[in-house]
Amino acid sequence: MSTAAATAGERTGRAKPSTMAQALGRALRDSMAEDPTVHVLGEDVGTLGGVFRVTDGLAKEFGDERCTDTPLAEAGILGAAVGMAMYGLRPVVEMQFDAFAYPAFEQLVSHVAKMRNRTGGAMPLPITVRVPYGGGIGGVEHHSDSSEAYYMATPGLHVVMPATVDDAYGLLRESIASDDPVVFLEPKRLYWSKADWSPDAPAPVEPIGRAVVRRPGRSATLITYGPSLPVCLEAAEAATAEGWDLEVIDLRSLVPFDDETVAASVRRTGRAVVVHESSGFGGPGGEIAARVTERCFHHLEAPVLRVAGFDIPYPPPMQERHHLPGVDRVLDAVARLQWEAES
Amino acid sequence: MTVQELPGAAAYRPTPPPAWKPLTDPAPLLPDPEPFRVLGTDAAAEADPELLLRLYAELVRGRRYNAQATALTKQGRLAVYPSSTGQEACEIAAALVLEDRDWLFPSYRDTLAAVARGLDPVEALTLLRGDRHTGYDPREHRIAPLCTPLATQLPHAVGLAHAARLKGDDVVALAMVGDGGTSEGDFHEALNFAAVWRAPVVFLVQNNGFAISVPLAKQTAAPSLAHKAVGYGMPGRLVDGNDAAAVHQVLSEAVARARRGEGPTLVEAVTYRMDAHTNADDATRYRGDSEVETWRAHDPIRLLERELTGRGLLDEGGMRTVREEAERMAEGLREQMNADPVLDPMDLFSHVYEEQTGQLREQAARLQVELDAEHGPHDRDGAEEGR
Ligand SMILES: Cc1ncc(C[n+]2csc(CCOP(=O)(O)OP(=O)(O)O)c2C)c(N)n1
Question: Is 0.95 topped by the overall pTM?
Answer without folding.
Answer: no
